[in-house]
Amino acid sequence: MFANLLKLPRTVWLLGLVSLFNDATSELIYPLVPIYLASVLMAGPRALGIIEGICEATSSILKLVSGILSDRRRSSKPWVVGGYALAAIARPLLAFAASWPVVLALRFADRVGKGLRSSPRDALLARSVKPGERGLAFGFHRAMDNAGAVVGPLLAAGLLAAEVPLRTIFLWTALGGALTVALALAIREPVDSDPAPPATDAWKLRQLPIPFKRYLVVLALFTLGNSSNMFLLLRARELGLAEYQVPLLWALVSLSAALFSTPLSALSDKLGRNRLIVAGWGVYGAFYILLGLNREALLLWPLFAFYGLFMAATEGAEKALAADLVDRQTLGTAYGWFNLTTGLTLLPASIIFGELWQAVDPLAAFVFSAACAGSAALLLHLWVGAGEGARSTEGS
Question: Is the pTM of this model over 0.85?
Answer without folding.
Answer: no
